[in-house]
Each structure stands twice: as C-alpha cells, then as structure tokens.
Amino acid sequence: MTPWDRNRGQREHWTAVARQEIDWDSLPSAADLFGELHLAEQAPAPRAPDAPRDSILPGLTICAIAAGAAAWLAEHYHFPIILLGLLIGLSMSFVAREPRSHRGLDFASRTCLRLGVVLLGFQVTFGQIGSLGPEPFAGLVGVMALTFFAGVIAARLAGQSSYTGILAGGATAICGASAAMALYGIIGRERLPQTQFAITLVGVSLASAVAMSLYPILAGYLQLSHQQAGFLIGASIHDVAQAIGGGYAFSEPAGSYATIVKLSRVALLAPVVVITGLAIGEPDSGARRTLWRRLALPWFITAFFAVVLVNSLVPVPPVLGSNALALSKGLLLIAVIATAMRSRLDLLMQTGLRPAIPVLAATVVSFIASLGVALLLL
C-alpha cells in the first residue's frame, strides 16, 4: 500500500466521523457568509402595525373591584372610604408587578382623577361664595395660605422635599384627597415618589376623620356660636363630606354655614393649582416654553371652572348634582386605589412616617387659624 492510499483512507475515516458528529442541518447556510440569514431566522417576528396594544381593562377592572370592596366596608363599618381605599390599594401593590395591569392603573390614577375633579364643580356656585361675605372670605383665604405654607415649612424642618410640603399643605388647606390628587398631577411622579404621595394621603384621611369627631366637641366646649362653629369646622376639616358632617353634628345652622365655607375652599382649588403650577414649573423645566403656554391651565382645571360657571348660571336638578357627587367620589376612589397599587411597600418601610409630619403641622395650624378668624370676625 502506497503512502497516498494510507492518507486517503485516513481522510475518508475522519470525514465519516465528522459527518456523524456534526448536524449540518442545524447550522447556518453555507452561503450565509456574515450570518444575516441565521440571525433573521432567530430574531422575533416584528409586531404588525395594527396589532392591538395592551388593554386598560385588566388594571381598571381590579381597581373597580377594590373600590366596590372599600365602599361596602365603609358603609357597613362607618370608616372613611378614602382611607379604606388606600389601605386596600397598598395591600394589593403586588398587582403592579404584572405588566398587563400598568395601562389600566395609569388610566385610573390620571384620567379618573381629572374627571372626578371636574365633577366636583357641580357642588359649587359663585353665589354660595358670595353669600359668605367679604370679611369671612378674606379670613378663609388667610387660613388657607397659612395652612399651605405651614406644610411647606414643616416639610423643610422634617428633612422632606418642598414638593412633599406643597402636597401636604395644599391637601390640608383645600379639600383633602381630591386636592392632593390634583396637586400631584402638577408635581408629577418624577419629582415626588408615589410612596410619599400615598403616605400623605393616609395622613390627610386620618387627620380628617379624627377632626370630624373631635372638632364639634371642641366647638361646644369653647361655647362657640352656630356661625363660629360652622366656620371653624368648614375651614379646618379637609374632606368635603366630613366637614359637612362635622358641621351638622354641632347643629343644623352650623352645618349649613360649614357647607358654604367648605365649598368656598373647593372653589379655590383651581387658583391654587394654577399658582402652584406656575411657581414650580413642569418636571422637564429644561424645555423652553412660551409665556402663553406656561400660563395655560390644565384641561381639567379649565373644565372645573366651566362646570362651576354653568352650575352658577343654570339651575341644576338636585338629582343631577347628587349623581355627579357620587360619580366624582367613585372616580377619585378608583384613582386613589390605583395610585396606592403603584406604590412600593419596601420604600414605604424605608421612608417611615416622616412624610406625614407636614400633614400634622398643617392640620394644627389650620385649626388654630380657623378658630382665630371665627372668634375675631364672627
């Protein structure tokens, strides 16, 4: 056997071995020099332009179910419904781990909030504000200003950001959770984490619930008149329903006057939100905007003004007003629950209760200032 024949036999042997060990069908095409065909086969197929996006229904449905549970518990156990919604939302924060729920939660926390604020306009007329009188109205504005800046200063002293103080002071000065939600829409998640926002909402709801039970007793102990007690309760209790309930717990005349005072505070929601937005700017402050764009109102505040104007000029049937109030409460409750679900409980444990300090300070200042105005002007 010649050397050529031996080498040929070895070559045939190793070729057969290679054919057995290598699965050529699983490899890229021999003509695919740079691997384009192989990469194209392995890459995921692109989504068609008309493919449906994630629906808002999963997240929105979960929020609606949680809101129904909160409403049932609040009705049967006489507990503040907003606070119950917050607690239920925080306990269900695991829902936000599912990406399919994000669009629904975002829709609930933004769109439902804004629609709820708009519907609040059916509860206010300019005639109600005018019936308060110039001196009590000026005193009310002074109380709100002191309360607002008390929250800002307390936040600074507690080592919190000024945005936390703006949120706490504004919510305490105006109308509780609904004002907090409106102001948070101006501040934005980029500047204030949702965890701190949730703590502020808890503090505002608890303070309002305690005040509704305590302030009528204190007004009776201080021997205030019906008008003085109505002003004190209407100017210092945060939530609308609890302020009105606290006024009627003292007396019927006090309840009527507390309603006018409280609704006057609600009417001032739009100016406060506008002034706050102009003062702090937008989160992307680096972008230059024209003057008229910076002065433009958020659409839901403009709609709130329009509804108040219509409600002042055109008699609205009581049924429509009561249904609008119920729908507004439901939308705000859904927004609160969605915001709580998007909050991270691990950050909640890290921050502790420090974000609630501005709420406490603003509540105390609100009570003292309201009492002073009631004793001096009424």
UniProtKB/TrEMBL annotation:
Location of the protein in the cell: Cell membrane
InterPro entries: UPF0324_pro
Topological category with respect to the lipid bilayer: Multi-pass membrane protein
Coiled-coil residue windows: none
Domain of life: Bacteria
Pfam families: Cons_hypoth698
Main location: membrane
One GO CC annotation: plasma membrane
Entry keyword set: Cell membrane, Membrane, Transmembrane, Transmembrane helix
TM region(s), chain numbering: 56-73, 79-96, 112-131, 137-158, 165-187, 199-222, 263-283, 295-314, 320-341, 353-377
Family to which this protein belongs: Belongs to the UPF0324 family.
Listed PANTHER family: INNER MEMBRANE PROTEIN YEIH-RELATED, UPF0324 INNER MEMBRANE PROTEIN YEIH
Stated name of the protein: Putative sulfate exporter family transporter
